[in-house]
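Intended use. Records like the one below are meant for learning the mapping from a protein sequence to its folded structure. Do not use them to infer anything beyond what is encoded.
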Amino acid sequence: MADARAVDRTRSLFRPDTPSTLRADGVLDVRRPENGPTESRAAQRLMRFGPLATIYERAWRPLFRLWMGVSGPTVDVERTFAVRDLGLVDDGTRVVLDVACGPGNFTRFLAESLADAGRRDALVVGLDASEPMLARAARDTARTVRTDSTGSTDLADHVAYVLGDARELPFEDGSVDAVCCYAALYLVPEPMRVFAELVRVLRPGGRLAVMTTVRRGPAVVADAMATAVRPSGLTVFGADDFTDVLHRASFEAVEQRIHGAAQFVTGRKR
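Structure written out for the chain above:
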């Protein structure tokens, strides 16, 4: 279970009107019953399939590499990208939000990276809409203990998980230092609304990093591919969809890297 201090720090970042219930597994539930059921197509239902949480990192997640081609970055390289793009080595990074965190593998890596950088007061919050994914994330995090020259640290002291809708993040405007969403925006309902929420909760000077799909090749081929996968709930984005949003929001150091049919987009909020 998440440490009480991590839970309390996370709640302190919420908007005042946010309902939050601490579940028995240590996950903070901020869902609003009045919002009703979320859109549920094949891709979204799959993310709520309990057994997927067990095989996600070693089986399901690597499938996204097919979009990047054989020369695309491995999951380990993606993590290196995130550490750099999110500015985790910078002194000012204390609170990191991992949206659509799944079973928490990436969330824990971010927390470990901050611990390695000496950020003993860091907090990493993983948010997802899938109960099975977050239940697995909470269990695995509670069992993770890091040992270094300064002694042992329970990772749960610095990690909290939130069950909620990424289209309506519970956090105050400008409340987090860094926010990421890797390999998820192409799965979620209303992805551009989710992206706008990532921008909203980021503080001035904070960094954003996403990894998702991108249309490549001749327009006819790219449009046909996007149309073919849409009924399954998958979205293939245009090359300028996210960079245009960041430029309009006056982000600095906007960068896009494309590998196959995948894109990494990062920037710093002015």
